[in-house]
Amino acid sequence: MRAKVIGAGLAGSEAALQLAKHKIYVDLYEMRPSKQTGAHKTGNFAEFVCSNSLGSYDITNASGLLKHEMEILGSELLPLIFESQVPAGGALAIDRELFSKKVTNLIESNPYINVIREEVTALDCDSPSIIASGPLTSDTFAQAIKNFLGQDYLYFFDAIAPIIEKDSINFEKAFYLNRYNKGDADYINCPMTKEEYEKFYNILINAPKIELKSFEKGAKFFESCLPIEVLASRGEDTLRFGPLKPVGLIDERTGKENYAVVQLRQDNKSASLYNLVGFQTNLKWGSQKELIQSIPGLENANIVRYGVMHRNTFINSPKCLKPSLQSRKNQNIFFAGQLTGTEGYTESIASGLLAGINMAKYLNGEKLLELPQETMLGALTHYITFEEHNSFQPINSNWGILSPIELDKKIKKNKKLKNELLAKRALEILNNMLK
Ligand SMILES: Cc1cc2nc3c(=O)[nH]c(=O)nc-3n(C[C@H](O)[C@H](O)[C@H](O)COP(=O)(O)OP(=O)(O)OC[C@H]3O[C@@H](n4cnc5c(N)ncnc54)[C@H](O)[C@@H]3O)c2cc1C
Known about the structure:
Bound molecules: flavin-adenine dinucleotide
Shape: globular
Mean pLDDT: 92
Largest sheet: 6 strands, antiparallel
CATH superfamily of the largest domain: FAD/NAD(P)-binding domain
Structural class: alpha+beta
Radius of gyration: 22 Å
């Protein structure tokens, strides 16, 4: 049995090693070093392109829980991460060069893996393949993926508005209502007085922005998807006539329209997460927090996902993938890594792990593994493959996507304890599933 893995980044390296572990021969394609991405610097596999931290390993942290699940599922890269660890307080950080050399050696010496150092330019649907070419997939191959999936199913930029946990909203100030009272009251509205709006506006126009990378400069954003700071720079009232317009939102408590209103739209099926409408932004994260917490009702907002706008190739997974990461269109094709719409180093390795396990099962004629939403990896894959997203944008691991748990009010307020219980449930379910 033989499979192709395209891209020897974090996801592709993990996927190839999983397949080899299941005695499946792998042709692993990597275009570096002869063709670079703009962010990678070497020809080594599983290169960390920016920070050298994978976040926490503590199970009361969402990314920490994901790592514990990956250990249970038998990740091949995680032990190499621990071998390359450097001191970094509570975070799991690595010597990136050492790590990626270890991965490269492990792969190059594996008798089941044949490394092919070339750019893949076409998609061969007759060969079982895992596509893990990442957020900086080469242009020609991106076009081939687009042709395979259909024109509207491949995106090139993130334009993400921040996402917050509903439980952290103060409903003494915020209220549910749809504009002109149409339909059910789906939106959460945070009303502002003139003074509150002016304070918000001042924070916004003075906030520092994230520097774009050289390969991202010149990116053109759609007018309907402009960063909030760009809209604000057009004049003090632009936002009040745009995403913050108060028209048609009569505040029941006063019987009047407010000066401005920030709207929040439901982001997941269980309604635990809400995104801020029109708030796609390139502001630094500290400034985003200050800005969001200046909005009445969001003073204590727990931000599970900050806004970003950067080059990021990703597919419309809700339309294209099954929760096993197998393509809906052709059973031979699986996707993994950031290309699927999960974000982050840990998440990329985790999806490579799942895609590798499932490709092996597929080739062996076994039932594919679909993880339950009580687990972090199951919740992530469910989030990205859930068909009813209004507008799909990438996400990283966070507590808001897990299936809710019944808890009494006191425990609910104790975040650490609540996360501990959610983590315990996830690990128990996963261990039982794999028995
Ligand atoms: C600039 C930037 C900075 C980031 N910083 C962070 C961060 O600090 N922390 C974090 O958690 N996440 C970060 N991410 C997000 C994400 O975690 C990383 O991009 C991660 O490396 C994604 O893993 P991957 O396996 O999906 O893709 P990659 O690790 O990028 O692997 C894809 C591989 O495919 C190869 N490839 C591409 N096209 C082809 C082709 N046609 N043929 C053959 N090979 C091909 C590439 O050379 C690459 O080796 C960042 C992303 C970017 C773009």
